[in-house]
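Q: Predict the assembly, please.
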Amino acid sequence: MMTRLTLLYAAAALTLGASTAAAVPRVDRAASAHAVAATVSGHVTDANGRPLANAQVFVVGTQIRALSAADGRYSLAGVPDGAQTIRAMLIGFAPQSRTLTIAGQAVTVDFALAAQSVQLAPVVTVGYGTQRRRDLTGAVSSVEVADVPVNVTANLGQMLEGRVAGAQVTQNNGAPGGGLSIRVRGTNSIAANSEPLYVIDGIPAITGTSSNDPYQNPLSSISPNDIESIEVLKDASSTAIYGARGAAGVVLITTKRGQRGQNRVTLDASYGTLTPGHTIDMLNGRQFAELANEGRANIGGVPFYTDSAIAAIPNGGLGTDWQDLVLQDATQQNYNIGTSGGDDVTRYLLSGGYFQQGGIVINSGFDRYSGRVNLERNVSKRFLAGTNLTISRTTNRIQSSDQSLGNSTVMGALWFNPASPVTNPDGSYVLNSPVTWPIENPVANTVGLNQQRTIFNTIGNVFAEYDLMDALKLRSSVGLTASFDRFRFFAPRTIPGGASAQGSAQNQSGENYTVVNENTIDYRRQVLGNALDLLGGFTVQRSRGESIDARNTRFSNDLLGVYGLPTGTQPVIQNSPYSESALLSYLGRVNYNVADKYLVTLTGRADGSSRFGENNKWGFFPSAAVAWRLIEEPFMKHQKLFSDLKIRLSYGVTGNQEIGLYNSLATLSGNNYAFGGTTVVGYATNSAAPNPDLKWETTRQTNVGFDMGWLDDRITASVDAYRSTTRDLLLSVDLPAQSGYQTQLRNVGSVQNTGLELQLNTVNFATERFGWRSSLSAAKNKNKVLDLGVAKQIPFTGDKGISGQTGGAVMVIKVGEPLASFYGLRTNGLYQQGDPCPLTTLRPTLDCVPGEYKYVDTNGDGKIDANDRVILGNGQPDWYGGLSNDFTAGPVNVNVFLQGSFGNEILNGPAINDRNVSNLSNQTTDALNRWTPTNTNTNVPRANVNRPRELYDVHVEDGSFIRLQSLSIAYRLPERLVPRADNARVVLTGQNLHVWTDYSGFDPEVNSFGGDARARGIDLGAYPRARSWTLGLNLTF
Amino acid sequence: MTRHSLVPRAGLLALALVLVGAASACTDLLTERPKDRISTDAFFQTAADAKAALAATYRPLSTQSLWGINLQWPLMAATDESRVGPEEENPNIVALTQLAWTTTNPYIAGSNSAGGAWGGLYQMITRANLVLARVPAITMDETQKAQMLGEAKFLRALGYFYLVRLYGDVPLVLTPEDQAALGPRAPQADVFAQIVQDATEAEAVLPQSWGSSDKGRATQGAAEALLAEQYLWRGDWANAALFAKKIIDSGVYDLVPNYIDAFLPGSQNRSEEIFAAQSSSVTGAPAIDIAAWEYPRAMNPNSNGGWGTWQPLQSFIDSYPAGDYRKEVSFFTSGIDPSGNVVTFLPHVYKYRPTARPGQQDVNWPIYRYADVLLMYAEALNEQGQTPAAIGYVNMVRARARNGTGSENRAEPADLSASLSQADARAAIFDERKWELAFEGKRWFDLVRQGFTVFQTAEATDPTVIPANIQPTRMVWPIPQAQIDLNPNLTQNPGY
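A: Predicted assembly structure:
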């Protein structure tokens, strides 16, 4: 808040000049006429005890007033005796008054102001600058960081979840350090990236990725404790300034910095417990054995288990409860220490933190060490220089979950044969599940598998600003983002992943860095009495990355683990890729403000990217926006309904350059052969044909928005409607084999996103004793594929083990439908004895057999096959959003945050096997209600070991949910307990306390394909989500 | 507010220069120059480049594209020697045994544009075409260059020979330009003319044998074997005999004393191997994981067992002469699982025995070996009425089998009588091919050559077969539907 105000004054002074100078509060030190005078002083803080700077504090009915300093301290001198009312006011907070009797003595009066409306943050960060919110012409949402329980938030992305209308945040799984996927206004790419660009302190630091790794999380290196503000740029007017990287939205992150005023030290510590949310009821050993036998018997086969084998199932027939052996309770902790401060010429902030989260799956976890230095100094009156720098190291211990359907620890906990013991009589692990599909023993994995990724990450810049003259400012910065990552893997011979290879080790390391130089000129002056702001700039960005992946197998023992890499006998350098890319850009923006009523913004950016084909090196991305602040019109002066009313309209073109490197070129790939038993290096042309015309994907977006306020802005709302059409989508187009190639990347596809967003903030109560405010964000997005080139539909396997289970595509991209539709066979209940059989070609033991599904012959050809597959659902929600309620009563603050998603379906991957009522995996307890000749009134089919594992509509479930995401109860400690502290709070936070959903898997918020646009809302056995309670302490001195 | 009338001119000029200078200096950044891969234009400059392009031409033989899976599975499963294992859940794989494949079956048609064996064969042809188009311009030793071009021609001819047998008429593409044109299917006669031309030119320049580090390259004998086999396929008995005899007379090849040695790791160094898809466990080289599909699941497919994807038919096992050594060494019914327990199972093929499964898949897939040539020659002689002479060559193969491990003297398979009728000899030769060349991908083509007549009776004992599918239209595979979709000039084979 302090930053924003400081910036407000800077911006106000520059853009508005004298016309608004009166609005800027000034300290009026006019002496009182009274002879006897007392001093009233104290602190102004927010409800959470954070100091508020620049609050106006005044004695009602006098000219005695002051502004609070950075530490919130104010002092009113010369307050006359008698009953006086002291009032504190600050934009964005409910005013507060205290009446007291002054009798010449010094009095301390502290104010804790309740935030009045989260939308009122008066200045927001935009691309290459800041703007007053009231002057915005585009759609920009801010996250109210103060409402986020940062101490228990593992990563920055979670701070956005449910708090920004139009940004759908999906945590891919519940793993500590697991990844998340953010979609701003829907998915607008198919094969390329659909995740937003992250700009941290002005550095375009992280580009989105279309990687389908659910653990991919570019934001995990940044400590949430360091975040001052987060803005999400949504419409083309605000993102076009980022040109070929703006199409998927831009997230602007600003970190905390030092303020003028006294030095402050903050300490935050929290500790909590994590417990598994819920487990899935699976069959026990005897139940499974009976089902497997029945399934065999139903097709006329010999039983899997003899009576004596069933009798020998351990634990009296219960067998092994694999989930119980794999899941555990865990802990998490977070410690942060920081100091900040500054004076008129230098501001500084230093902070360091440690965050650790244990895994509820044994032998998994995440931790992060982070440090930050933000410095700036006014070298001279016109020259400012500074740096923002963060370094961090994250370690992620991984137990495989949704990387592959079937071969993972989490899937093993569900699918492994419950009739099997964990170990053989000799003590060795039962490696693969008997009788079923040969899934790996999850207990062996949790004990023996060592899989961890460490990332050393640094993001920083050095910047300088020079005021060439009052109206003209130059800014130049050099930013660096660099990461060094290492992945270690060792599977000893005692566990499935290492048994056949006699130990398997991998040590992969890589480094990536991007250097960006950005130079802008900002010219602000009054033209015809109106404010004109011109921005021009030139940027150069270069990125390099390389890695090496060394592996070995066949070790003589497991003693050295991954560090025994050289001692194996089958060393392989798997690959050593190197990549290089560059982006050159020219950018410009015009803001013109006519009488504070009519606002015009024009932007343009020309991007030249090395990724583009030889014939299409440069793209130009313009945008235009206008806004009309109706509330300023004379005819609005007499109405009482609105306290604010603004209409915004924007249109623009943005691009997506994340089309991969070297995709336009004709290159060769290694194709070795063996002559004489030794390797001979070979090279052949790639199966993908070159395409010199390859270019960016282009999005055109129209946005209409209304900003409204009622009751003196106690209620504010922003409503935005948009339609964006993305063309030239990168698609791999098949070529016939006789051409010598299999595919060519071309810009052929098109998708459309249409949506509506609502951000509503209300102050329900704002009295001195009790404050209650609410913040609702809700968004609807409708996604539709318009064009796929020649094809009308593209079945998408996605794989990650899916084809190994089902033998075919379970997703389809189809013209006229949303992206990532689920694709499978429809069923219509069960076939009962005597039902008519509509099919002419029957699959034995399956079609028209009592107790089997009534498959729907959708194409009416009399047989059931892959051609009968239809769209069964879609993973993209109709609506999503969040609701925050914040209550303040005296020293107690309670924040309740609900978040949800509606109208999306989930493809329950594990169900393809564990609800197929066969022997190929353990089954959920639904199978107990399976069809038998005596139990016909059921929707669970009979046991059948031959039923194909395919996607049936019964595996596609409603994924709607509402989650009680967090409940925080904070208590401000009385001053006498911690006398030296400016602020001392204890906070109890519960997370993921309850989920209201019909989804039968671990958790309905699931996305096993990470950033991949072609598959959303798929559950491949995602790591279950923990429920947590954390107790924290915040101290500020 | 202070008003400045102008920015200092010098400052503005300097700024403009900086921006323009930076921009022009950087434009070059936009050119992609990959460092971890080779651009096609920079290649084909040296003899080493030519050698690398040629090695890549061989490669599809030993990957999933061809003998790794795409040729292996259907050619095993669809015959009367083996079937898809009864545990197999994938209906598309089961369809291979049932001859119930469709135009989109992924194990016949491949997934999408990859095209299964069709795609693998055109991949090999594409690479051969590129060698033939670009290597002539390279300045290098002319003898070596001619040999390289000969190898490429051999591989192209081999590719077209599989294509024409599996699909009938196929597009005949011989240059990169041909390939871009997406032409229609060419008549079989044109394809065969090209096969003969390429193989004949290869035969003229290829060496009789290669040094130890080049074992596995195409030889004169390989080109002659290809010529003999394609003449045999076309019923040109005289020419088939001519080229088979050239190999026999060359003195380069011999039968190894112990039948199983012809398949054990290192076969490229043995006298029997004429041409094989090379498989090596050496890092970086392609490996055909035959055991993964051959070995039983009971030994654990993720470890030292396999998936039992194709398994021998009992009727086929029973068809061997009693006591035939080849039967004893080609199958097994018990093995050791990863935990060290002895497990028993239905008979599985045990002819290909890599050093270790998994990890060391070093068994070559035989394409031409000397025993095959002897039987080709015998067949060509018999068809020309020289039955007694033909029987002599069959008996050479049977004699080796009687020797068992090398020095045994078994009763079976006894010498055939030189007085067999031509028809009986024909049947005997086909039977001998069936046993001698079992699970080498030859049987399917022999069944087709016999018009599926033998097939119907034998395969009827397989419970998974659909007898109605054993009909002439199945003698060629369908053109993969995706290929037709992508090239409207292609037409489908009748019956699909």
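Chain B has 21 helices and seven strands. The first strand of chain B starts at residue 38 and ends at 39.
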